[in-house]
Amino acid sequence: PNLSGASQRLEAVIAPAGKSVDDLAADNKAFALLPERRRARVLNVTDGNRYLEAALLLDEYLDVTEVTPLKYVSVDTSKFDAVIFDGVTPSDAPKAHALYLDPRGDGSPVKVGKELNQPELDKVDRKHPIARFTALEDVKIAKGRALLPQVGDKVVAQFGATPLLVAGERHSHKFAALAFDVRESDFALCVAWPLFVLSTLN
User: Fold this and answer.
1) How far apart are the first and last CA of the chain?
2) Strand bridging mode 173-178 / 29-33
3) Which of 12-16, 97-101, 162-166 has the weakest average pLDDT?
């Protein structure tokens, strides 16, 4: 399910081990034609974040539209596959999947708790798709805020017992919330940053 490529052929081959006998060599190969990947429409709501813009440029299959928080109110989010809220949290939930970076206020999909000084992502769920292949434990954070997930939400990374990265679903749309501004950390300078952004969008 994680592979795609227009007109690309995937080949699987098996072979006998050791001195074992192969009674039917005709079934040793299988082929599959990979589906064409569709371009994803992403709305980036931000006042400007070069680290985020750079990460989004790494995937040629992302069709990114960038707007300021002031212009967001007039955008129809149902026309997008995903919305990224960079340091801004509108009161109305988008009609699309969403990634919240440093969410605040009543519009956040998860309640935001107390401020934390120099928290660490010391517990990470490596099996979760948005944390796979990323070294989140190495990230240094100046400050962040505790997240208070609802029942059914998934805590992907935490500082001790305090959630800092939460994923879940609201109104039939998936979301992920990161409890700090990447510019208040060295996350944006790590290889894990673009991997996290693109894995979350995928």
Assistant:
1) 11
2) unpaired
3) 12-16
